[in-house]
Write a structure and sequence with these properties.
The chain has helices at 3-17, 32-43, 55-69, 81-84, 87-96, 145-160, 188-191, 193-196, 262-266, 289-295, 333-356, 362-372, 385-393, 414-423, 435-440, 480-488, 495-501, 514-517, 537-559, and strands at residues 22-25, 48-51, 73-77, 100-106, 170-175, 220-224, 229-233, 246-248, 278-282, 301-305, 318-322, 324-328, 377-381, 400-404, 429-434, 456-462, 506-509, 525-531. The protein has 19 helices and 18 strands. The chain has 560 residues and is α/β, with parallel strands linked by helices.
Length: 560
């Protein structure tokens, strides 16, 4: 067995010993040793291999697998720009705390800086976006296998957040010298025993170094629940204390218990009578400006509960930060009741305005889709409008696993993330995305005939452009002369033809047909396109705000 084949064989074996069950591979020459080793491991039934030709999509596929399974997943690629294409997914994994392993093949050190083809300085390529970035030495013999195993153990343990470090991405750079393929006279599995022999003093399937996963440092922060307290829960939030009004984003674990119209209520000028004395922030809320304005109010005491080193405090107003809560006092039932009454009234007003809109909008698509999904379904939400539409118009409900790329909230890689999550979900999978998000990762539809297909229905709310900008500052009438060209960005792409090119079933449906078309039991990957309008979004949001203010005015005035 040549040294590069030995190194790759040991790395893959040790990954499996460390609990890796899925791996994503991109074809290349310099990573050929890893390609052979991963293929052999799959043939032996030790892991499931997913092969993709686009490194960016492949990285997000691995991210989706890790996001849903909570297990480390390697994405393996060749050198040069291939490695650079992993960067968007690495950034998302870093900010979202996802155990992604970026395993990049490389040229040996003596070729770096010499003008050798497809060679860049890969050590440190991802900068501060990774928890660690070990780089192995190109092997010259097969005697280093214990060091190789130790390096894999450190890589996986760091990605898992072992010893309290918090999960996240790790970059393992692996230089290979030629020859890059096993000897033609012997199959890989025939030459493997010399480096895969039972490890001395260790169980057959155990890693070389077993690393325990420790608990994060417990730092309690006191919160007096007898004060008028509002809970704001964002992405990755832990459970909220009971008995308090809760404004939660869809990816928060307590979203089913959240106020349906919470973001609208916080944005209403009538709500000061329901204004809290203090806010408990759980996770990382990023969706709504009404929430950020509340957290920036210097008259409101903000307490943050998080296990991440970067806690949410954009306006620098937090008075306390901790990893655990020590509650004193008891919530006032009337405080919660007042919020619930206002919420019921506001939610009815939102629903009435959205339903009365003569043209289909993303808000209506989100409302109908969430209500129609079967219990046990996975729902992955695209960034920009789809996740906000769910938060603003859908009624929170149990029975769903709601995921999203909220670490950096980019639109890239969403189809691939949804595919990865659906492959390990164990039930029907759905994704709600906008047309630009869909186009940005259309390569996520690309999979060879031997690849596993997820049971995933991708619902595309197609408003032919960037609808979210219509409700931001640049969507104001005074900027209309430039808006459509540089923000609206209409594209006119035929999504049916694009899906046909990838042999992916496609169907067009109206918003009213979603429950019938999108939610019917289906096998494999398919796309449901719903035409929506963005030209009236700004006016629609203004109309909803007015309706909410009008609906809750009598209640708030009477309870003040």
């Amino acid at each position: 067995m040549n040294p590069s084949t030995a190194l790759a064989t040991v790395l893959v074996d040790e990954l499996v010993r460390c609990g890796v069950r899925h791996a994503v591979l991109c074809p290349g020459s310099r990573n050929a040793p890893l390609s052979f080793a991963l293929h052999a491991a799959e043939q032996a039934g030790r892991l499931t291999l997913h092969v993709r030709i686009d490194e960016r999509s492949a990285a997000f596929l691995a991210l989706g697998l890790a996001l849903r399974s909570n297990l480390p997943v390697p994405v393996v690629c060749t050198s040069g720009t291939a490695a650079a294409n992993l960067h968007p997914a690495v950034l998302e994994a870093h900010h979202a705390g996802i155990p992604l392993l970026a395993v990049t093949a490389d040229r040996p050190a003596e070729l770096v800086g010499t003008g050798a083809n497809q060679t860049v300085r890969q050590a440190g390529l991802f900068g501060a976006a990774v928890r660690a970035a070990p780089s192995l030495a190109a092997p010259s013999d097969c005697a280093q296998h214990t060091q190789w195993r130790s390096a894999v153990d450190r890589t996986v343990a760091t990605a898992r957040g072992a010893l309290g470090g918090g999960p996240g991405p790790v970059h393992l750079n692996v230089p290979f010298r030629e020859p890059l393929v096993p000897p033609p006279s012997a199959a890989l599995q025939d030459s493997a025993p010399q480096v895969l022999a039972a490890l001395p003093g260790r169980p057959t399937s155990a890693p070389w170094t077993a690393v325990s996963t420790g608990s994060p440092l417990r730092v309690e922060v006191e919160l007096d629940l007898s004060r008028r307290t509002l809970v704001v829960a964002g992405h990755g939030a832990p459970p909220a204390p009971p008995g308090l009004p809760l404004v939660a984003e869809p990816t928060a674990s307590d979203w089913p218990d959240a106020l349906a119209a919470g973001p609208w209520l916080l944005g209403s000028p009538v709500v000061p009578q329901l204004r809290p004395e203090q806010v408990l922030v759980l996770g990382r809320p990023t969706l709504h400006r009404s929430v950020q304005r509340l957290l920036a109010d210097p008259t409101v005491a903000v307490t943050v509960l998080t296990d991440r080193p970067e806690w949410t405090d954009i306006a620098a107003t937090a008075v306390a930060v901790g990893t655990a809560l020590r509650c004193v006092g008891s919530p006032d039932p009337e405080w919660l009741h007042s919020w619930q009454q206002a919420d019921a009234t506001a939610a009815a007003a939102v629903r009435s305005v959205v339903q009365s809109c003569p043209e289909a909008t993303g808000l209506e698509v989100a409302r109908l889709l969430v209500a129609a999904l079967p219990d046990g379904a996975l729902l992955l939400l695209g960034s920009s409008n789809p996740i906000r539409d769910v938060s603003l118009a859908a009624r929170p409900r149990p029975g769903l696993t709601v995921l999203a790329n909220r670490g950096v909230a980019g639109i890239d890689g969403t189809i691939s993330t949804a595919t990865g999550a659906a492959l390990v979900h164990g039930g029907p999978g759905y994704a709600l995305v906008g047309d630009l998000t869909f186009l940005h990762d259309s390569n996520g539809l690309l999979a060879g005939p031997d690849e596993d297909r997820p049971d995933l229905t991708v619902v595309v709310a197609n408003d032919d452009g960037g609808g979210i900008f219509a409700v931001l500052e640049q969507g104001a009438p005074e900027y209309a002369c430039a808006f459509e060209r540089v923000f609206g960005t209409p594209h006119g792409t035929d999504l049916a033809a694009l899906c046909a090119a990838h042999h992916v079933p496609h169907v067009r449906a109206s918003a009213g047909e979603l429950a019938e078309v999108a939610v019917v039991p289906a096998r494999g990957l398919r796309v449901v396109e719903v035409a929506t309008q963005r030209s009236g979004l700004r006016a629609l949001h203004d109309q909803i705000r007015t309706a909410v203010a009008t609906a809750v005015a009598p209640f708030v005035g009477g309870s003040a």
